[in-house]
Amino acid sequence: MSKDLVQAMQILEEEKGISSQVIKEALESALVLAYKKRYDNAQNVEVEFDEESGSIKVFSVKEVVETKYDPTFEISLEEALEINRAYEIGDKIKFEVTPNDFGRIATQTAKHVVMQRIREAERDIIYNEFIQYEDEILTGTVERFEKGIFYINLDKVEAVMPIREQIAGENLEIDERVKVYVSKIDKTPRGPQVVVSRSHPDFLRRLFEQEVPEIYDGIVEIVSISREAGDRSKVAVRSRDENIDPVGTCVGQKGQRVQTIVNELNGENMDIIEYSEDPATFIRNAMSPAEVINVIFEEEGNSCIVVVPDYQLSLAIGKKGQNARLAARLTSHKIDIKSETAYEEYLSEQSAEIEEDYLVNNEEELTEEYDAFDEAEIIADVEEIEEIEEQDSIDEQLEEQDLAENNYDAEAVEEAISEVEHDYEQDYDELLEEQEEQDEL
């Protein structure tokens, strides 16, 4: 433990990038442990390592008190003043207690602890180096494949790519150079654990940034991505410049830009759509390649009904519901797809349900209204009957009056007729008498 250790510390700092201060602190901690283990001494021990000379000293630290009760931890004020008149109660005084054979013991014990600290420091260096690459794309080499996990060599660290981070059906060869997305970096007792991915949506985002300068520069923005790795993805983009078409920019001339990304992802289908602030328009675009007739939003929540032509229902839903599923993720809406015919039936059912619910929920109120209506009808009927009876009574009186008047007229007529008949009989008799007289003549 001399100048050789100091030189070794300098070499570690130059080659490994480990600060000599880190090694010094690790060494002092190791020597404290070695001393306590070997001499079973109290906890008030400090070890000082001189980086220039390489010397090591052990000190016992005692507190100045008025009356000393434990000589291991305390020293009386009277004793402290004999050492130095400036000491006061509460001060700490160091007493060197370095054993003669401590160098050999310390060397054996400290070696393992120092190496452990060095390894920890190296891990911290690697961690700090790779943490800056989190959420970025790196290129590595496939080292091995074990129990469904790919191990990717990223030079200073071996990254892992679990099954959930792999593209379904993709077969990577050993020693193959491959692009990966650094999704997470964890600190573990064995060093930094770097998790990489090729299925993460942000892997697709970074690929677009590499291939489309307008996205990297911020002129075109990727708003959202929904992806089923290895099969199909939908990417919503918008432009901050009115003169730039975001979709055309991402596709590139003759589709070269997007084709490069598709090739990297082993033929994964890509739908690039234009984002809109209007949710209905955005959902229409997201349902591509299907045509949308109407988008009806529910009153609560991010739910909507998308109406499509009858002949495009299967296209809108997609294989195993994939198109609808990706559109829902892209727009953050729950989408219920219906054909025109089904939507008309749905409206009819809704109307019937609303009517039935109204009757059920308002049964008591309707019953009260019906009862009140019934009572009012009965009262009205009684009043009507009374009116009819009263009118009948009046009619009877009028009829009697008319009858009386009619009877009066009949008697007068009869009297007139009788008079006429009487006069006629008289005239007839007189005429007969005159005829008879003439006959006699």
Automatic annotation (TrEMBL):
Single GO BP term: transcription antitermination
GO molecular function: DNA-binding transcription factor activity; RNA binding
PROSITE patterns membership: S1
Domain of life according to the entry: Bacteria
Domain S1 motif: 135-199
GO CC aspect terms: cytosol
KW RNA-binding (keyword) present: yes
Pfam assignment, any one: KH_NusA_2nd
Keywords: Cytoplasm, RNA-binding, Transcription, Transcription antitermination, Transcription regulation, Transcription termination
Subunit structure: Monomer. Binds directly to the core enzyme of the DNA-dependent RNA polymerase and to nascent RNA.
Family note: Belongs to the NusA family.
Function noted in UniProt: Participates in both transcription termination and antitermination.
Protein name (database record): Transcription termination/antitermination protein NusA
Originating organism: Ruoffia tabacinasalis
Gene name linked to the record: nusA
